[in-house]
Amino acid sequence: MKNNESAENEGLLVRRIKNGTVIDHIDGGEALNVVKILGITGTTQEALSIATNVPSRNMGKKDIVKLTNRELSKEEVDRIALISPRATINIIRNYKVFEKKGVEIPTLIEGLVRCPNPGCISNTHEPIRSKFEVLPKGLHCIYCDWVITRDITSHII
């Protein structure tokens, strides 16, 4: 009986997808934030699978997000990098991994994060996009010098 039980546990947690994107190696507990920053809601068209706190040899625990019939833009991948810098993006075509790449944390991000300073020029009606320098300690607003050090997800546009 034990052999059958362990064989069942080795199976897939989530069904394979024919076409789309698998975001793997998301920091444990961050999958719902990834879904949020991608703008995925219950009213969007893509089928979505989420696995949270999956055991991982390298990470201890990780999350996985699978999106059917959708490939991510560079801007979306940059957003993911801000909250989960070890994530990997797998583009799936006809059930096979077509492309696999890690995320890269950009040194400068523009238009992806809202500055929390209400007096920042990027929060006025001026035709200007937010601009942040990515630092080890957080995100530094180029315009007003505000630094976001925690809860970056809530500031992502």
What is CATH's topology name of the largest domain? Alpha-Beta Plaits
Beta-strand proportion: 25-35%
Largest sheet: 5 strands, antiparallel
Distance between the termini: 51 Å
Helix and strand succession? HEHEEHEEEEEE
Shape summary: globular
Strand order of the largest sheet: 2-3-1-4-5
What's the number of domains? 2
- Annotation, overall tally of beta strands: 9
Helix-and-strand structural type: alpha+beta
Averaged pLDDT, please?
87
Radius of gyration (CA) equals 18 Å
- Please identify, by name, the CATH architecture of the largest domain: 2-Layer Sandwich
Low-confidence runs of at least 5 consecutive residues: 1-9
Q: Assign a percent range to the helix content.
A: 10-25%
CATH level-four homologous superfamily name of the largest domain: Aspartate carbamoyltransferase regulatory subunit, N-terminal domain
Helices, by number, come to 3
Using the coordinates above, name the CATH class of the largest domain.
Alpha Beta
